[in-house]
Amino acid sequence: MSNYKIGTKCVQSGWTPKNGEARVLPIFQSTTFKYEDSDQMGRLFDLEESGYFYTRLQNPTNDCVAAKICDLEGGYAAMLLSSGQAANFYAMFNICNAGDHIVSASTIYGGTFNLFGVTLKKLGIECTFVDPDASEEEINAAFRPNTKALFAETIANPALVVLDVEKFANIAHSHGVPLIVDNTFPTPINLRPIEWGADIVIHSTTKYMDGHATSVGGCIVDSGNFDWDKYADKYPGLTTPDESYHGIVYTEKFGKGAFITKATVQLMRDLGSIPSPFNCFLLNIGLETLHLRVKQHCENAAKVAEYLNNNENVAWVNHAGLPDNKYYSLAQKYMKNGTCGVISFGLKGGRDAAKKFMDNLKLAAIVTHVADARTCVLHPASHTHRQLTDEQLVEAGVQPDLIRFSVGIEDVSDIIADIEQALEKTFA
Q1: Beta bridge partners of 218
Q2: DSSP E strand stretches across 11-146
Q3: How far apart are CA 44 and CA 66, in angstroms?
Q4: Which of 240, 298, 305 shows the shortest CA–CA distance to 95?
Q5: Which of 190, 197, 223, 219 is nearest to 68 (CA)?
Q6: What's residue 305's pLDDT?
Q7: 109 and which of 66, 157, 219, 401 could share a cystine (Cβ 3.0–4.6 Å)?
């Protein structure tokens, strides 16, 4: 549906029923699929034919939803996974082996920071973290001959750093590696990173895409633009025979679909981080209203940020829509329609005041989640990032007093009233 606007794609893309078929995407709640010809089943296992035979590898419901997200991002191919963390892991492990190295922005989500800095290290893959605001020269210095990818979040969680996607794409390509970005917070409604040079886009679909806190999930979208064969020695997993599939060379057999095909038939085959068809069905329902909800999230967040910015008990506010924000110009360049519904701020009473404020909220809930229809709040230093040292917190852009406030789509006057009464009680 490349000729349609993104709102139409949210509603219509992915599933095109034929005459007499269900208008709504069906749930193919089956582990396996029947064939009457043994040879055909063999050809499916040899990747000589396309088709469904086991849901761990492919499922019609899942594939339709992946196709919708791929269309929204303007990619070539996509796959769904059981979580955003699984998507991050698969994207890296699909091109990295023991002894390899990656470069990542330091301001990424705490769980991803731990995945790259600790867990991948146990597998022999090292990561160097860089300040996304650093100069190109400084970031270039982090690269090594064995570097395989550059990673960043388009809007960092929870630091809300806005990535200069073009700068990062130019750096990555100058070293012959792909730029992999997590685009969870802006969603393709506000930013399509592939149009700015990103090669692979990741989502935690758990957030705005699902939108209702019902289903954990992830997605990888490949642009199909990175030339793996040009750097064949660097990416042997894609450019040399895979003996586990009868010597198939993915770039030769699948062209622009090589990356997603390998991640599906090799990594998903062996690691199995598949989402359930029912969760994908729920995700698709969320996607149908994504363009409407994101707009409301952004409008509400802008009003909440303005209110906080004018409150005497608030020490600072971080929202890229504020003209005095450090990232205002980047946000205007990449996200003219708004950034996301998440803002952060600190209170003059510091960490203790932050906790007291959160306990006084009535409408907004303290949850380990972000970016759904309901307003929610979190203190990252005490919750999502508590595994990090104070030094790592600073490196990740998380101040001890930082309150992550995910503005929902309720009436904004009620959200502001809740904040107001909580502040009054905190500073009484």
Answers
A1: 81, 204
A2: 77-81, 101-105, 126-130
A3: 20
A4: 240
A5: 219
A6: 98
A7: 157
Positions in the chain short of pLDDT 50: none
**If DSSP codes are grouped into helix, strand and coil, which group holds residue 48?**
coil
Cβ atoms within 10 A of the Cβ of 277, count? 22
How many Cβ atoms sit within 10 Å of the Cβ of residue 117? 18
Q: Is 309 exposed, middle or buried (0-12, 13-18, 19+ CB in 10 A)?
A: middle
Q: Which phi-psi region, left, alpha or beta, contains residue 351 (left: φ > 0; alpha: ψ -120 to 50)?
A: alpha
Q: Please compute, for residue 84, the number of CA atoms within 13 A of its CA located in the half-sphere on the CB side.
A: 25
Contact by Cβ (8 Å): 61, 280:
yes
Is the CB of residue 398 less than 8 Å from the CB of residue 158? yes
Q: Is this structure's pTM higher than 0.70? A: yes
How far from the centroid of its chain's Cα atoms is residue 17's Cα? Answer: 29
CA-to-CA separations, 303 to 36, 299, 325, in angstroms, rounded:
61, 7, 15
Phi first, then psi, for residue 89 (nearest 5°) are -65, -50
Is the CB of residue 102 less than 8 Å from the CB of residue 148? yes
Collect all residues with Cβ–Cβ distance below 8 Å to 31 and sequence separation of at least 6.
54, 55, 56
Can you read off the two tokens belonging to residue 372? Answer: 């759904």
Backbone angles phi, psi at 395, to 5 degrees: -60, -35
SS3 label, residue 189: helix
Q: 10 Å Cβ neighbour count for 189?
A: 24
Q: Name the DSSP class of 179.
A: E
For residue 200, the cross-strand partners are: 180, 222
Angle (CA) 150-263-228 rounded to 5° is: 55
According to the model, what pLDDT value does residue 2 have? 73
- Residue 119: count of CB within 10 angstroms of its CB: 13
First to last CA, the chain: 56
Look-up of token digits 């796959």? 79
| Residue 17 Cα distances to 12, 277, 282, 284, 290, angstroms | 10, 18, 18, 15, 21
Would you state the structure tokens that stand for residue 6, as one six-digit string?
Answer: 């993104």
User: What DSSP string describes 229-240?
Assistant: GGGTTT-HHHHS
Please tell me whether residue 57 adopts helix, strand or coil conformation. Answer: coil
- DSSP state for residue 257 in the 8-state scheme: G
